[in-house]
Amino acid sequence: MIKTRHFDAANYLANEEDVAAYLSLAIADGDPALLGAALGDIARARGMSQLAKDTGLSRESLYKSLSGERAPSSDTLFKVVKALGFTLKLAPASHCS
Q: Distance (Å, rounded) from C-alpha 42 to C-alpha 20?
C-alpha cells in the first residue's frame, strides 16, 4: 500500500506573492466557501492566534468561519483580509461573446 501525506496549502505559502496568487485563484473560482478555506490556510500559515488578536474574533470563530464548510460572513471576510494585509478591489467583469 502506498502511503501519502496530507497536503496542507499552509505549508507552501512562503511569501506575499504566493499568498496573493492563492487568494486570486480562490476569488476567481467564485465559491465563497472556497475563499473562506483559502483564508483559513493563510491564517494557519501565519498563526491563527495572532489573526484572532488582529481581527478581534475568537480563534474558535475563525476556525469555524474559515473551515471551507460554509461561506464566511462579509464582516469576517473583511476583517480577515485586512488583518492579513490585503485589500479587496473590484473590476468590471470581462464578458465573452
A: 10
Per-residue pLDDT tens for 19-50?
A: 999 999 999 999 999 999 999 999 999 999 99
Task: State if pTM tops 0.70.
Answer: yes
Residue with cell 473583511: 78
Q: Which three cell numbers stand for residue 43?
A: 491564517
Residue 79 is part of which domain span?
13-83
* DSSP letters spanning 34-97: HHHHHHHHHHHHH-HHHHHHHHT--HHHHHHHTSSSSPPPHHHHHHHHHHTT------PPP---
Looking at residues 65-92, what average pLDDT do you find?
92
Does any domain span residue 58? yes
**How many domains is the chain built from?**
1
C-alpha–C-alpha distance, residues 74 and 32, integer Å: 10
